[in-house]
Design goal:
Strand order of the largest sheet: 2-1-3-4-5-6
Protein name: DUF4192 domain-containing protein
Largest sheet: 6 strands, mixed
Organism: Nocardia xishanensis
CATH architecture of the largest domain: Alpha Horseshoe
Number of helices: 15
Strand content: 5-15%
Shape: elongated
Distance between the termini: 24 Å
CATH topology of the largest domain: Serine Threonine Protein Phosphatase 5, Tetratricopeptide repeat
Helix content: 40-55%
Pfam families: DUF4192
Order of helices and strands: HHEEHEHEEEHHHHHHHHHHH
Radius of gyration: 23 Å
Number of domains: 2
């Protein structure tokens, strides 16, 4: 990307959905070698309607969060974009009233970042990320341009080609984790029976001095449901109750983390979404953690955050959800949490199950 318009139309792909009323901050890694082009190391989106403490207060909060990520990435430069339908192109309006509040925010944001030794290298604004929309600089009022079609962005093309959908709004993501109360009631009606059957299988395996047989069968049950769902068949309420009981076992849950880096990641995510929508309590949290981890390890921060929020809303004491949420909020790189998937691969291998090739 060589000019602001190209960067702006790439935002839906980089964020995972089309941002609205947002401040998007792009963290630039130090070029290697020094004179080469900068590389994007992280992208953060902030809701412009989330804070009512005034522009100075909001700027300080945002700058603190960005500075923390920059420290984790060893970065000293960022770019910023305001996307807000309440703004109008200043070159086409009699006054700059609709632009001034956000220009003030960005100026305060830049000052706060400078205190943390981070430079705001460029800042732009646009009413919406759509073909034909005018963008303009918040640093230089004479620097402006027109957006091309975001669908034609090479970044968007590469994103979709790699199997990552671009959602039309953040709501599409939050809808993925909304509980279906009717489905949850149906599943709950089968939980006692599923729990009893699972307990009996585990006790039988212990009596045979072969607990691995229980874990192996449980893991195979989940893998079978993933394959079934991928073929178009939705699990029944009874089957989802059985899966809920299976996911309560830490050995099985930890092995399933490995699917996030394998060829069956997308199919597994389908099952996690189905379970998040259909389970309650800690069972729902377990499925949400699997979805959150899968999104996190592939770099989909927005979905990871939404899934982990769902897990913690359901079970605030869930240790894995707390661990991943803390890592995400502190800017831990996805590659650094991959070791959880590698550990899962080891568990599956010890059980005699090959989860297939993985990707880096």
């Amino acid at each position: 990307m060589h000019e602001p318009g190209e960067l702006i139309v790439a935002m839906p792909a980089l964020v995972g959905f089309v941002p609205e009323r947002s401040l998007v901050v792009v963290v630039l890694a130090r070029p290697q070698p020094p004179k080469s082009s900068s590389v994007i190391s992280a992208v953060m989106r902030f809701d412009l309607d989330q804070n009512r403490r005034g522009k100075q207060g909001l700027a300080a909060v945002l700058a603190g969060e960005v500075a923390r990520i920059c420290a984790a990435e060893e970065a000293t430069e960022v770019l910023a974009m305001i996307i807000d339908d309440r703004m109008r192109d200043p070159s086409r309006t009699p006054t700059r009233g609709s632009v001034k509040p956000w220009a003030t925010l960005v100026a305060a944001f830049a000052r706060q970042l400078a205190r943390e030794k981070v430079t705001l290298t460029g800042a732009w604004a646009v009413s919406a990320i759509e073909a034909g929309q005018r963008w303009w600089s918040l640093h230089d009022t004479d620097h402006e341009g027109t957006l091309s079609d975001p669908a034609d962005s090479m970044v968007s093309f590469a994103h979709v080609l790699n199997g990552h959908p671009i959602h039309s709004s953040r709501k599409q993501l939050t809808d993925l984790v909304v509980q279906n109360s009717d489905s949850a009631k149906e599943v709950a009606a089968h939980l006692a029976e599923a729990q009893s059957a699972g307990h009996n299988r585990f006790v039988s395996a212990i009596r045979r001095a072969d607990p691995d047989s229980y874990h192996r069968r449980a893991l195979e049950k989940v893998l079978h449901q993933i394959a079934t769902l991928a073929s178009g068949a939705v699990p029944t309420a009874r089957e989802m109750a059985e899966l809920a009981v299976v996911l309560r076992d830490r050995t099985v849950r930890d092995a399933l983390l490995a699917l996030a880096v394998g060829e069956h990641a997308a199919a597994a995510d389908q099952l996690w979404v189905t379970l998040v929508q259909s389970l309650s309590g800690t069972d729902r949290a377990e499925a949400a953690v699997l979805l959150g981890y899968s999104a996190y390890v592939r770099g989909d921060g927005p979905l990871a955050g939404i899934a982990l929020d769902a897990a913690l809303d359901t079970d605030p004491s869930h240790s894995m959800a707390i661990l991943l949420d803390t890592a995400l909020r502190n800017g831990m790189h996805p590659q650094d949490i991959r070791r959880l998937a590698d550990h899962g691969l080891g568990i599956a291998s010890d059980l005699g199950i090959d989860l297939g090739p993985t990707h880096r």
